[in-house]
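Example record used in the benchmark description.
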Amino acid sequence: MPQIWLIVGASRGIGFEFVSQLLSLGHTVIATARAPPPIQTTLPPPSQYGNASQLWALTGTPNGRNLKILECDVSSDASINAFTEQVRKFGRKGGVLERGVIDFAVLNAGVLVYPNRISEITFQNFAHHLHTNTIGPLFTAQRLLSLSSPPTTTAGIPVSPTWGPSTPLTVRTLVFISSDSGSTTNFRAFEDGFGAYAASKAALNQGLRHLAAELERKNRWKRREEKTVVLALHPGEVSTDMANVSLDWDVEGIITPRESIACMLKVISEKGWGGSDEGGHLTSMMDGMKEETGAATFWTWEGKRYPW
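Model output (structure tokens):
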């Protein structure tokens, strides 16, 4: 059955591959890029808009009509808010979100500026990693979840959007793309030059776990259809331009974006809302593990539980 996916950070690497594979499967995709070109009849030259141009090129594929592209820079509070309101508009009559459900929202935006050793890194560079890898994705998730309620004024008074009434939107599964570098129980001391990146991913992991717990407390009386499953995924050692750096150690098990996404789609389907192992609860019981109700879980692209 066709689903609606939202991919934040889709102009390159695994984000782009997510969009490409989802379109080929017949799903509707809302994707973001930092600066999409204006709507026009001919595609802009690749050099004009950089990586975003290949995302726009997908609109010309057989299922390209199912792709909607919005602008979002997760390092900017204003950009996230503007993007969220654009998503809200899709909930009005005739919009792609008219039925009020985003089946899966994948928060993929991230950055790796190598090297980023804690003993050497600048304040600005460290802040860049934290804003892009931690604060941005978590705040984007917060804003998307707020779409389940009508827009309000600063005083908390509901307002009617000038572009017409919109259906409250429910995000059924939130997927954060994390990394094994962010595991605190499986510390990777050999990763020299990954200090800020690892710290940002560890912070992301803790943030999304708290988010899941907070949602469980706030929404315990809501119907199951209105609740959100929160997942973290490690995509593997994927060969992308972001990972194209010269390292002092051998990286084992390198896979292509196509391999990573094909596997992650299976994991998301299984562990996400309505899946055969929704939230990983069945796996937990089978393994004799005890976990909090509504807790977020961390998985590898192969569907194996990863230590936080």
